[in-house]
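Below is a filled-in request sheet from our internal design queue. Each sheet records the structural input a requester submitted and the sequence that came back. We keep these sheets so that new team members can see what a complete request looks like end to end.

REQUESTER: design group, bay 2
PRIORITY: normal
MODE: inverse folding
CHAIN LENGTH: 440
BACKBONE (tokenized):
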């Protein structure tokens, strides 16, 4: 929950200089393109220095590599993300960059709507992490751009560590006494940013099987005295039904720029399956899947049996199949109140000035639009950018106080044909690729 409008205004006044810089579009990124149709892909980034490099070899043999930087609007940005499982002679490039693109928070009573990244100093709210919050890992220091307190811009706020996630797989072997199983390992990279009463935990989990999970968790404090009318727009907390907490939505956007196999010229494909009743003599209904090549900008919505993948234009696995990453949605509550929140994801053509899903700073050409929905205008996709929208409707409960338990929203991208087999396949099963038969 947030502070009241008045309390939030007091917070804004305290950080006026930093917010003013954000509104002006201050950032550590490159400047805007001259015009949208002519926007060119960014030049290949130079290797980052040791201080900004993250490299972790997990116990299963998989290595993740990336560079990090800190943007004055988006906070943590991860660049040049690559994945190298065992058996691959060199890293496989996955992403040019990955970052948050907005946290839009409208309140159910219509009194306020916050855009926490571009309008309320999300990046400037980076907090110091205690050693116990990063067990077995390293806490790095970030110099925060446009820091609220210029005397203390350095924050120990970036944790990189490893975590177990439970079973990666389990399979009963040919004999009853043979079990193949492995416990999965993740590289976890995260920061915590405070905005008003909320503390947002932005985490990136890089699994040893090549999957990347992106999540934002909201915790902190449930504000009190926000709302005092029992008219369905709030929920009673505390004794009886005197104090109400205002319900609201969190619409979180991510921006992913894929660079599979080192090329930004990726392809987008949409898959839909239709299920028909059993025909005469059939034991079950029939499902037929069709592929649609997405060649122009798209505002997309999930429905049953629909999914998308981003396909490499240059790379193939050892089976000769094009490498790709499938977009895997998490639970979401789509907010219908704004044009930019009415779709689950967007594919737009790369443009340096299009950085935030809403209230994009005024560094785009006149008439370019301030939100991602206005950028979908039929342009051909040569260098697609993925914008993912995941919503959460927060109706408070007694258990939200105090402190408020963390609630998560996010999604994943999963490798599809990046490697010829499961990258964690045990050596004893490495021969079982394709239509195999048990050994005699």
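RETURNED SEQUENCE:
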């Amino acid at each position: 929950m947030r502070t009241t409008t008045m309390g939030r205004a007091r917070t804004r006044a305290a950080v006026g200089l930093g917010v003013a810089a954000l509104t002006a579009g201050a950032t550590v990124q490159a400047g805007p393109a001259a015009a949208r149709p002519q926007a060119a892909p960014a030049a290949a980034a130079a290797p980052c220095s040791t201080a900004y490099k993250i490299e972790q070899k997990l116990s299963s043999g998989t290595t993740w590599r990336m560079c990090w930087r800190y943007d004055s609007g988006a906070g943590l940005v991860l660049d040049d993300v690559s994945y190298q499982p065992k058996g691959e002679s060199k890293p496989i490039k996955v992403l040019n960059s990955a970052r948050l693109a907005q946290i839009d928070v409208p309140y159910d009573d219509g009194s306020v709507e916050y855009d926490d990244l571009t309008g309320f100093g999300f990046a400037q709210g980076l907090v110091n992490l205690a050693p116990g919050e990063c067990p077995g890992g390293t806490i790095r220091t970030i110099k925060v751009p446009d820091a609220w307190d210029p005397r203390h811009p350095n924050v120990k706020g970036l944790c990189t560590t490893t975590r177990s996630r439970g079973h990666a797989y389990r399979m009963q072997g040919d004999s009853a006494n043979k079990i193949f199983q492995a416990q999965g390992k993740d590289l976890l990279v995260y920061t915590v940013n405070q905005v008003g009463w909320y503390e947002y935990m932005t985490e990136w989990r890089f699994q040893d099987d090549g999957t990347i999970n992106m999540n934002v968790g909201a915790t902190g404090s449930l504000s009190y005295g926000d709302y005092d009318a029992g008219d369905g727009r709030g929920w009673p907390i505390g004794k009886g039904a005197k104090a109400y907490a205002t319900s609201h939505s969190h619409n979180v956007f991510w921006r992913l720029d894929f660079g599979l196999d080192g090329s930004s010229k990726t392809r987008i494909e949409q898959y839909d399956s239709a299920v028909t009743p059993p025909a005469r003599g059939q034991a079950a209904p029939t499902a037929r899947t069709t592929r649609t090549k997405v060649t122009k900008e798209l505002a997309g919505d999930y429905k049953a049996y629909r999914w998308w993948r981003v396909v490499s234009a240059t790379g193939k696995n050892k089976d000769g199949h094009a490498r790709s990453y499938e977009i895997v949605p998490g639970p979401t509550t789509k907010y219908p109140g704004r044009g930019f929140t009415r779709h689950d994801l967007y594919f737009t053509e790369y443009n340096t000035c299009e950085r935030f899903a809403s209230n994009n700073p005024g560094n785009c050409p006149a008439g370019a639009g301030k939100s991602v929905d206005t950028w979908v205008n039929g342009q051909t996709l040569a260098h697609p950018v993925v914008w993912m929208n995941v919503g959460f409707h927060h109706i408070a409960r007694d258990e939200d106080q105090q402190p408020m338990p963390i609630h998560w929203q996010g999604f994943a991208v999963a490798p599809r044909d990046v490697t010829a087999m499961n990258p964690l396949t045990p050596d004893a099963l490495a021969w079982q690729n394709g239509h195999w038969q048990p050994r005699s």
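SHEET NOTES:
- The first strand starts at residue 53 and ends at 57.
- Residues 1-44 have pLDDT under 50 and may be disordered.
FILED BY: M.R.
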